[in-house]
From TrEMBL:
It comes from the Bacteria. This is DUF4139 domain-containing protein.
Length: 557
């Protein structure tokens, strides 16, 4: 025998198929002889190399969890500061960086990163630390669930377990799944074909094992080819949807309303199914240019089956089956025990914020500059739990100087309109007023005191405010200060308008009217002043206690 053909014996034939039948184009020689034998052996040798290469590609290395993780959250770009965070619908995102140590085999292999965020954007994933780089990235979207488990068992043998309602006896038999989990499931037993859960008996499927390809947790896999076996520390970074954050401010007003103690929380929200324990956590404040693109999240689907009513086109009278009554606890039959529990949705927005703490908390975020953005870093690792919110202290300021004004927006209109003024607390973000720090956007709860008890006096919101900017917190409508605008009015022309402001409070108040156009003032009470705010004309006046002021104006044509 020739020595150069010693290793060219046919490899084991996969799946019990003949190579000549599977690849007929590779076996053109049918005559006996040395030439045909040599050619056949050469082809078999090539097939041996092919299958050896295919086997090498199936090497899989699994990283079950990261050894270290960092989570940086970004606000939802389109969510206004006045909108609360909805845990069931988070439109923000996060940058997640994981550190993992894996053993990479020589040759072509797949590295599976289990336990990544369920909202991962796989196209954003960056893997560094691989000796020979990444050849391919894949998101394993086939998550383990009742529906996917059944779909992956198509054509496989399972165990069909039935329970008699009358006797409670359990009977089990083998079956083969013949259709998927889309609406109805057909199984084949020794007695024929039938639809699952359409016999009137409680029945379920028991599986011997989990079919290959199913992932119990969100997984990202990469394909690489290493020259030699090595152990490497990899860094995996990716963007993930389903996160959000905001600031939550709590203000305590002094009895005279001229000072305020302000405390703030950083509220972090995760709507993802993956928890990140002991994560280095940050939040970025500011507006980033990001397209509003929301994609469907990968998630396991329940098994929902439907049995259609019995129908026939035959002349033979059909047999009507009586529906078996649901178990009520009074009749004979087996008892069904439900081992799950219903989880009710909690509206975090309805929970009243806590009062201002007496002392500053031990942990408070640290502010850092990030270009034109602000980064708030939690100084020690915390757990970003799945489907939850976490709060960490942001700031605590005492004795901030504030002023209360009553304000309306006056649009162009004809006729008569009465409107209550809005209570607005104003200040300036400067050290002189007791602030002087960047204020990220968020919701504000204001508390006052009545007979020694702290009570909620209003809720508002605050947009991003840099140092030196005006700070305004709107706390709701004030029923004691009313503005009435009338076209014409006593002593006025047909195009004149009369604005009357009344105050039934026991103290004088500051009133502001912002005009939605360009009016021409025809006359006003003493003490009135005109100015501009954000390009709009502003009338500012002091309304005496239990008094009134008036302004006559005409809109420019």
């Amino acid at each position: 025998m020739r020595s150069d053909l010693i290793n060219l014996a046919p490899p084991p034939q996969p799946f019990g198929l003949s190579l000549s039948k599977a690849f007929p184009f590779l076996f053109p020689f049918r005559k006996k002889g040395r030439a045909s034998t040599s050619s056949a052996r050469t082809v078999l040798g090539l097939c041996s190399l092919f299958f050896a290469h295919a086997a090498a590609a199936q090497q899989v290395t699994t990283s079950p969890a990261p050894s270290a993780v960092s989570v940086t959250m970004y606000r939802a770009p389109q969510r206004a500061a006045s909108e609360p965070i909805r845990l069931e619908w988070l439109n923000g995102y996060a940058l997640i960086t994981e550190t993992r140590t894996v053993t990479i085999p020589a040759g072509l292999s797949d590295i599976r990163f289990e336990g990544v965020a369920g909202g991962i954007l796989p196209e954003s994933a960056i893997v560094s630390g691989l000796p020979d780089g990444v050849a391919e990235k894949n998101q394993d979207a086939f998550l383990l669930s009742p529906a996917s488990l059944l779909d992956a068992s198509l054509g496989r043998r399972v165990h069909l377990r039935r329970t008699s309602r009358a006797t409670g006896a359990v009977r089990e038999e083998e079956a083969v799944v013949r259709s998927g989990a889309d609406g109805a499931v057909v199984v084949q037993t020794a007695t024929g074909y039938e639809a699952l859960r359409c016999t009137g008996l409680p029945e379920t499927i028991r599986y011997d094992r989990v079919p290959p390809g199913l992932s119990a947790r969100p997984t990202l896999s990469v394909r690489t080819e290493a020259k030699r076996r090595t152990r490497a520390t990899l860094t995996l970074s990716y963007l993930a949807s389903g996160f959000d954050w905001q600031a939550n401010y709590v203000g305590a007003l002094s009895p005279d309303g001229t000072r305020m103690d302000l405390f703030a929380w950083v509220t972090l929200a995760s709507g993802d199914e993956t928890s990140f324990p002991q994560a280095n956590t940050q939040a970025v404040a500011g507006r980033l240019n990001r397209s509003d693109e929301r994609r469907d999240r990968t998630q396991g689907q329940p098994l929902e089956l439907t049995c259609f009513p019995l129908g026939t086109t035959s002349d033979i009278p059909e047999t009507r089956f009586k529906r078996i009554e649901e178990f009520s606890g009074q009749s004979d039959g087996e008892e069904i025990v439900v081992t799950g529990s219903r989880v009710s949705a909690v509206s975090f927005a309805s929970v009243a914020p806590a009062p201002v703490p007496v002392a500053a908390p031990a942990i408070m975020v640290e502010q850092e500059e990030l270009g034109d953005l602000k980064l708030y870093r939690i100084p020690e690792p915390v757990t970003v739990a799945a489907m939850s919110q976490k709060q960490v202290a942001l700031l605590a300021k005492r004795g901030i100087a504030v002023a209360q004004v009553y304000r309306i927006n006056l649009p162009r209109y004809s006729g008569r309109e009465s409107m209550p003024a809005r209570r607005v607390y104003t200040s300036r973000n400067r050290i002189a007023e007791g602030l002087g720090v960047p204020l990220p956007a968020g919701r504000v709860a204001l508390f006052g005191r009545s007979e020694g008890q702290r009570i909620l006096v209003g809720e508002g919101s605050l947009d991003d405010r840099a140092v030196g900017e005006d700070v305004e917190i709107e706390a709701g409508a004030a029923t004691g200060v009313l503005a009435t605008a009338v076209k014409g009015g006593a002593g006025g022309g047909p195009e004149d308008h009369l604005l009357t402001v009344t105050n039934d409070r026991a103290e004088a108040v500051t009133f502001e009217a912002e005009f939605g156009g360009e009016p021409v003032g025809a006359g006003a009470d003493a003490g009135a002043a005109f100015g501009r705010r954000n390009g709009r004309l502003l009338w500012r006046v002091t309304v005496p206690a239990n008094g009134r002021v008036a302004l006559r104006y005409r809109w420019k044509s």
